[in-house]
Amino acid sequence: MADRLVNGTMGILRDIEYDDEGTPETLCIELDHSPPGTITRIGRYSARFEVAPGIKRSRTQFPVIVAEAVTSYKAQSVTKTNVIADFSSCFKPCMA
Predict the structure, then answer these.
(1) How confident is the model over 74-85, as pLDDT tens digits?
(2) Which of 8, 42, 64, 72 has its CA 20 to 30 A from that of 24?
(3) How far is CA 74 from the centre of its chain?
(4) Residue 48 pairs with which residues in a beta bridge?
């Protein structure tokens, strides 16, 4: 793709564009690997599928996951300005 938008691409949501009815239409994201200020616009994606014989459904969504998660190995090479972390369940009594 022109914007190199692939699985694992990270970025910052800068704006959401809405249609005339107030429904989110486009996400404006600044990708980490793009020059500062470069915005990639991502629209909604619709899919239709059959859940059972004769029963069809459709789903419309943005093909992104709003989250931040990294392995401890990857986190060793990343600098973040602000972080909120919950370590309450990641250590066992035998771990120092």
Answers:
(1) 667 777 787 777
(2) 8
(3) 18
(4) 58
Residue 54 lies in a domain: yes
Q: State the residue range of the domain holding 32.
A: 11-69
* Residue 60 lies inside a defined structural domain of this protein: yes
Strand order in the sheet with 24-31: 11-18, 24-31, 40-43
Q: Looking at the domain assignment, is residue 18 inside a domain?
A: yes
Half-sphere exposure of residue 15, counting CA atoms within 13 Å on the CB side?
9
86, amino acid identity: D
17-68 pLDDT per residue, tens? 999 999 999 999 998 888 888 999 999 999 999 999 999 999 998 888 766 6
Examine residue 63 and state whether it is found in any structural domain, yes or no: yes
Distance CA 36, CA 90 (A): 35
How many angstroms separate the CA atoms of 35 and 46, rounded? 30
The structural domain count of the chain equals 1
